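Researcher: I'm comparing several assemblies side by side, and this is the next one on my list. It has 1249 residues spread over three chains. Same procedure as the others: predict the full complex and return the structure.
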Amino acid sequence: MAHYREAHPLPFVITHWVNLIAMIILILSGIYIHFPFFGGFMGIARGFHVFFGAVLIINCIVRIIGAFIVKSAPAPGTREVVRDVWTWLPQRDNRHQLWAWISYYLFLRRDHPIAAKLGVPQKIVYLLIPLLIFFTGFTGFCLWGTTASWPVFAWGLEVMGGAMKVRIIHYFCMWAFIVFMCIHVYLSLIEGASPATLIFFWKETPGLVYDPKTMNIVGFDGMGKEPDVGETFKE
Amino acid sequence: MARSTVDPITRIEGHLSIEMEVEDGKVTQAWASGNLYRGLEHALEGRTPYDAALISQRICGVCPVSHVHASCLAAEDAYGIQIPDGARLVRNLAEGAQILHSTILWFYNLTGLDYINPLNALSANPADAYDVCNQYGTSAADFGALAERLQAFADNGQLSIFSGNWFDAKDPDGSSAFRFDPAEDLVGTAHYFEGLEKQAVASQICAIIGGKMPHIMTSIPGGTSFVPTAEKLDEIIYRIDELKTWIESTMIPDAYMILAKYPNLVDMGRGPGRFISFGVLDAASRELNDRYLPAGMSVLREDGSLGIDYVDVSRITEDVTHAYYANRLPQNPLEGTTSPQWPADGKNFANKYSWCKAPRYEGKTYEAGGIARMVAAYQRGVQPVGLLMDSALARTGISWAQLDGVAGRLLTRVLEASYVAGKMAEDAQELVDLMAAGEAEYYTPATNTTGEGVGLWEAPRGALLHTERVEGDVISHYQEIIPSTWNLSPADGQGNPGPLEEMLLGTDVTDLEKPLDAVRIVHSVDPCTACACHVSEPATGRTFGTVTSPWGVR
Amino acid sequence: MAETTRTAQGSLAERLTANGFTRRDFLKYCGSLAVMLGLTEAMAPRVAEAIEIGETSGKLLPVIWMEGGSCSGCTEALAQTNTPDIPQLVLETISLNYSETLSAAAGHSMEQARKDTIEAGGYILVYEGAVPTVYDGNVLLVGGEKGTDSLAETAEKADAVIALGSCACDGGWMAARPNDAEAMGVQKFLEERGIGTPVVNIPCCPANPEWLVAVIVEYALMGRLPELNGKNVPVSIGNQTVHDNCPRRGHFENGEFVYRFGSAEEAKGYCLYPLGCRGPQTFTTCPITRWNRSTSWCVESGAPCIGCGNIEPMHPQRNWVDENTPFIKRHRDLSLLGFHFQPTTAALAVSGLVVAALVVHGVGMKVAGRVDGGADFEPERRWDVKHGTEDAHKAGARAAALYDELDAKGLEPKNIDRFKKIRAAKKARRAQGEEKPPANPADAPADAAPTDTAEKGGDE
């Protein structure tokens, strides 16, 4: 597929960067707080951890609000845009495709499912990630001395079985992020770097053209360097 | 023939009851029942030796320091390490402080009220109390203020901790069983309260070293996490001096006062005359027989001669014929397999009647406690103990053959406290020298994480054994033999009664409702049943209704 | 116990003077008492008044002290307090009518004292130790009765029950796996028996005696229980962590840690966090109250907190031992199928499996020829082939024709290939450059083209 900027509008390129930086700092500072392998940084690590925890949560909220405001393409290979939130939720374009995706990844089928912007497993995971961010944040605030005694967080401590268990749950959440990042990076790079160059550097690449109306491939956009075939989205 | 029951026995640690068959005012048979089961060792399996040291001391709030040290010794044996001298001295100070604390608390606050009647002190003339002090060489206090305080208390009408005591109990000859005159009771009561104060001072030494007492926190496998500073040592040494002076000027004279007024204690509660001591307070050599209070299996013979033998743990067996555990032959506890089992017929003296198992050495009962340590120390030639014992026996006229009665137990333990205080002062000085030379070290890391270890030690109330098997720094098997099980054990399969049951035989019980002498005997061995009743092996005959979750059982 | 009007020995003030106390000393004591009760020091005169009224009205608060599955450590701990000390407490503040460790009486007389006190009512029950329930309660027998029954009987008529120490709060170590004795805390036990007497939980192993005394004195003097938090622990004790008040907190923030017992850092009194200190998740005021007459406390003596004050009254399985072992590690162990392991072990195992699966998958993708942009697209969704509309089938046919056309033109819609071309071009240019730099652009026009394409790809 061609990768057009419409798939990832600039605000979302920024939120993606913020996510990446915040998560890396959170993981590094979190590991340090869990066990300070070397001395000297506890106050700094905790300050960073709390700050970037807040950044991650606020960024997540901004991203969600953005989904209702900003328009983005429902699939790669098209410059047509819809409210971003529709591309996040189950789409007409890839109804009935969960098993198609799973069997594709399990090598049970040879050809690539026709994709909307996000594959079905991807979509499910992206819906869960905000929940994971909020839940991890919640456990974090249950543990942070400053907020632990607020009724809602005190309630959280009680429900989850005390500070030690919340600490471990929080810790496992970090590993869930790490596992997610491994899979996410793997899946987005294994079939080529184009999606990565788009989300990080907002750089477009030639490829097949998709028509959201018929929900199928209609052409090839060579972006001026290779011959175009069929329909394209040239302005 | 009639039954006399004391349940619960108070002023002890834990839950104990005794029941006695009485004929013509004398006990003909007795049963001692430990009435609580908690199951500590199972809780230690699957945890690390460090955890075990800190948890296992919580089996007993009176002698936690002994348990943590026995557990550490077992772990260090398994780890194959020896702790540095600095750690040895710190541990000795904590252990010694606990001995002082425990002895003072027992002497005044647990067994003391068997002899002192605070209510009788109400009619005392405070001036006479000073004469009593002069007579026995014991220390004086503000007797006037105390008398007023007692009067105010009595006038209030609520007896608080004195509620329902047997202060009206009678001796067989019809005289009051409490033999102190009012002035002596006033002195005794003053010292009862002073004792509460001084045992707290002794505990403060443990607290300085271990953070708090009971349940100190710094004695760990490999040494101690307490790093003494000049400031802390200062506080310790000052308290040792205070306690040593007080023990010598107050507690020992008070013991003589009790023995003078209660000569019947000499022949009361005579035990088997066989004593077991594992030794306590390590010397630089770390040898059991070289400890400040050395190990030894001692015997007091009828002819007044003494004997001592080495301790051989493999000769210990535990019998469960009359304990609430599944029947099996007596086994060495190191390899024993037992499981708790509540009998279908409940508590039944013909069958099972105690949660306490019956340890025997070569099939015989042995008495444990301060008296066992002092007899062993005397025979191993510990000079200060020799001097103390010789002069005390000369002064009281008690012979060696008579030492295994209530009087002997009272006497040996207060003398032991004085000796221990002296050794603590020496150890503190040695620690100061070590620190001054810059050679003080307190921790040795483990060199291996798999092994088997035995820790032999003494709690204030007797010989204590912890043993553990460690695999990859995780305990797969943990076992304890507790001091009070030696003394409080039920009868064994051969029909031999436990030492306490034997001590009670022939005791005067004038009033079935108030068998005061029997209670005096029980208190003289300072029972500690919370830790005496426990399980020593993974239960093989019982499955626990457990649902496993990542957070643990149920 | 019958109420007795005391024939007081003059006023409290006179008796204080007789004992060598000045009024000033007394007010000072009341001041510290006020602070302990969570009042301001300005309340001292009111407290003094309350004590003096209590003195003249002449009734001590009756207290029954029962021991369950206990080690007597909490009683021992009480014997270490001095504000007030034991004589003051048992002679002048409360009437301790039943205590297995302190009472002078024994046997049936003791049990009688307990029953009398229950009948008279208006007493406080202090319960020390866990409530062991296995074998229908036969594991604990006192006075011939099951300990569980005695507890229920005594608690029912009490004004309040003080569950003293972690064992009484939630079973403590006795409830630790495998919990042979099926131990639980007082609050849970009473709830199961349907007894509604208020329970005050005082945590730690042993319970800090100062906390107990504060609760008893507050009740004796003011006739009220302290404000409790969600775990029925007085808020003045249980709402801040050890970490919050730790004197070594500065070292924690500075990142100055003890990593090994016996190290130079330990001698410096650095923070014990890497040795598993549970201060950050233990809700008690140990560093403030301290122990043994404020002599010291665990961390001050060099020992990491092991979290003995962590209680969960309604959940014996969340006892502090299971929640905190191994003490030396930052996390507790998890248990699954009889194995006990650290969360990190589990996390690394799962993550390792995932990474290994990805590597294997990656190899599979390479073998299947999918790494260079994925497999070819299906012309029409499989589901549409079966269920689709006429339009969907038409779109599918168009796409199939398109793929044929692309193949015919040799157009490669895949991305990886483009990178390969770029890399090859760069390599060629470099090789050319070493030999004959000026000739470079002319020599490799075909190779350079895709590079330009890639660069211009984003220009639109």
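Model: For your comparison table: The mean pLDDT of chain C is 79.
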